[in-house]
Design goal:
Blueprint (H helix, E strand, L loop, with lengths): L1 E13 L8 E5 L8 H12 L8 E13 L1
Antiparallel strand pairs: 1-2, 1-3
Pfam family, one: DUF1659
Protein name: DUF1659 domain-containing protein
Organism: Vagococcus penaei
Length: 69
């Protein structure tokens, strides 16, 4: 069974001032080699652009692999 990298993306989650539901922002097309450290550093830079009332809360890294049976 062969496995092939399909995609990697990051989803940033912000506190939402006007709603209990969190606000989300996605960045797609990350390279397979993108390390967690680099992704977190990128997220912190993007998070620094957010307002103080709606700060970056957390992030998800989503990686997909294609398996041939």
């Amino acid at each position: 069974m062969a496995s092939t990298f399909a995609e990697k993306k990051v989803q940033l989650v912000y506190d939402n001032l006007n709603d209990e539901k969190k606000r989300k922002q996605a960045f797609t097309n990350l390279t397979e080699e993108a390390s967690d450290e680099n992704i977190i550093a990128f997220a912190k830079i993007i998070g620094s652009l957010a307002t103080d009332e709606e700060p970056l809360n957390s992030l998800f890294v989503i990686e997909s692999t294609h398996h041939t049976l």
